Amino acid sequence: MSAGSARLGPIGLEAGVTRGNAWTLLYAAFVTIGLVTGMAILTPYLLTETVGIPEQRQGRALGQLTVVGELVLILAYGPLGALSDRYGRRIIYAAGFLAMATAYLLFPHAGSLTEFTAIRALYGLGIGAATGMYGVLLADYAVEMDRGKLAAIGGILNGLGVVMLALLLGALPAIFVARGFSGPAAAQITTAIAAAACLLTALILLAGLQRGAPTGAVRLPLATMLRRGAAAARSNPEIALAYASAFVSRGDLAIVGIFTVAWGKQAALATGMSPADAIEAGRLPFIVAQSAALLWPLAIIAFIDRLPRAMMLGLAMAIGAAGYLAMGLVEDPLAGAAIPLFALLGIGQISAVLGAQTLIGKAAPVEERGSVIGLFNFSGAVGILILGALGGWAFDHFGPASPFIIVGALNGLVALAAIPVARLSRQARAG
Fold first, then answer.
1. How many whole angstroms separate alpha carbon 310 and alpha carbon 251?
2. N or C: more exposed end of the chain, with fewer CB within 10 A?
């Protein structure tokens, strides 16, 4: 950290980053995952009330939506990261929220799964810009020794955003139906509220984030930056490991956001609830998981920057494996006995995300950070694409716990892969 650089509490900020920029990023941490996850919670309700997809086909419909959304991300992440190196993160971040706002307004007017899927593609582009820029800015704003702390604080705010924003959106349809609105009308009002929140956020980001290209970034042609991002993985095993962890940990977020709510909704419908009441009651597994994910960063913030990054990642992915594999023990997702298991799921989810984020923040070189983290997010998009499609098929054919078991096994494989990378990193430091 250069002399005169600002600080935000215990976090040293990179040269040129102001406290106002950092506070805006923390606001973004609060709203980004909350508004992204809000759509995951609302989707089963919208598929029932506005598109008319029967319950026995919703696993496949969710898988299809995930595949299309992630195909968009796969095509967009690399170019978005490279463009952000050239023109600045704030423009791309704000544009992502504008795309999300437009999609939120359109979703309840879809008359078929095809139309809904097309809107999901637009929404996926917005998610790519928003979540991609959030990850890049974590690395841009904090000095290397404090990036784990900023990621952990961001993880806490992510959890708060999910609990306060996403769960609020999930509760709104039942509130409006109770006040006499029809199911489709309740969906339209709910998504309009979400769109307004996205628009407000876009304006705040434009006003508060650092202007221009990041300090130290070199303006190179897009193709050159993307090639360098890929070359970085070949020359640095920590970057390659980070890409593998992104494949699994971003898939983690998709699996938790999509399938816990769908699982809980199915269990609630089986008791005779209406769709609006079922989506509200069915949020319980997600609420438990996200509440645990909200609190867990407090337990690791003190040592996240003390352990070597690859070692921290291996530990985080092992915890993730335990959380996801525990879903195989759940019989009724709405029963009290399932609460500790869903809490462990939330701990595993946030551990994997933080481990991946801190490793890529350390390993990505500053002059190619947008490109490297763009390909990191690209790897995550591929993970969601594959795990979402596979999970949707498994959900319908083998039961609601099967998507979680698949992801748990992959978490375990990445944890094992981290062992030799951590050994190589230790040898390089000693040499």
1. 20
2. C
Token digits of residue 70: 């992630």
6 DSSP assignment: -
Task: Please report, rounded to a whole number, the percentage of residues in the chain having pLDDT higher than 70.
Answer: 89
In angstroms, the Cα distances linking 241 to 224, 236, 368 are 22, 9, 17
**Rounded-to-integer distance, Cα 73 and Cα 126, Å:** 9
Query: Which residues is 8 bridged to in the sheet?
Result: 11
Which residue's structure tokens are 């009002």?
Answer: 189
210 within 8 A of 88, measured Cβ to Cβ: yes
Domains delineated in the chain: 11-430 (1.20.1250.20)
pTM of structure: 0.69
Following DSSP, what letter does each residue of 213-257 receive, concatenated? SPTT-----HHHHHHHHHHHHHH-HHHHHHHHHHHHHHHHHHHHH
Looking up tokens 């900020």, which residue turns up?
Answer: 13
Separation of alpha carbons 203 and 197, rounded Å: 10
Average pLDDT, integer, range 119-148: 83
Evaluate whether 51 touches 183 at the Cβ level (below 8 Å). no
Helix, coil or strand: residue 7: strand
Taking the CA atoms of residue 61, residue 191, residue 210 and residue 303 in that order, the dihedral angle to the nearest 10 degrees is -60
Query: What does the block give as tokens for 287?
Result: 């609420």
Residue 367 neighbours by CB distance under 10 Å: 17
